[in-house]
Design brief:
- There is one protein chain.
- The protein is α/β, with parallel strands linked by helices and 119 residues long.
- The chain has a domain of 57 residues: Response regulator (Rossmann fold), CATH 3.40.50.2300.
- Helix content is 45%, strand content 16%.
- The chain has five helices and five strands; from the N terminus they run βαβαβαβαβα.
- The protein has a five-stranded parallel sheet, sandwiched between helices.
- Helix 3 links the parallel strand 3 and strand 4.
- The termini are close together.
């Protein structure tokens, strides 16, 4: 799992919970770093992507993932603290597979991961 968030706190908390249930987690602090990791030799079952990040937000990051062509079926799950009306729809239109809100409901996160990764 590639976990992308500009907050070290969120990376630690979400990463710890996922690791505790046996998910191998690689973290990235920005959309640029996430794209670099995806382009590396590593393979990922899914991406958990913060929507609100500086320089390149999650919607732009997923647009670049989808336009690249190497990861057409890679599940990308949006995670955001945004309560702006229409945020979910914007994320799904940009190419996200699912939408989760912060603070993260870990049961919902694990259910979403199971649904999209079939694990």
């Amino acid at each position: 799992m590639l976990l992308v968030d500009d907050s070290e706190f969120n990376l630690d908390v979400i990463g710890s919970v996922l690791s505790a249930v046996g998910v191998e987690v690689v973290t990235a602090g920005s959309g640029f770093e996430a794209l670099d990791l995806l382009a590396s030799a590593q393979t990922f079952d899914a991406v958990l992507l913060d929507v609100q990040m500086p320089r390149m937000d999650g919607r732009e990051t997923v647009r670049r993932i989808r336009s690249d062509g190497r990861w057409p079926d890679l599940p990308v799950l949006a995670v955001t603290a945004s309560t702006v009306e229409g945020e979910r729809e914007k994320c799904l239109e940009a190419g996200m597979n699912d939408f989760l809100t912060k603070p993260v409901d870990f049961e919902a996160l694990l259910e979403s991961l199971a649904r999209w990764t079939r694990r």
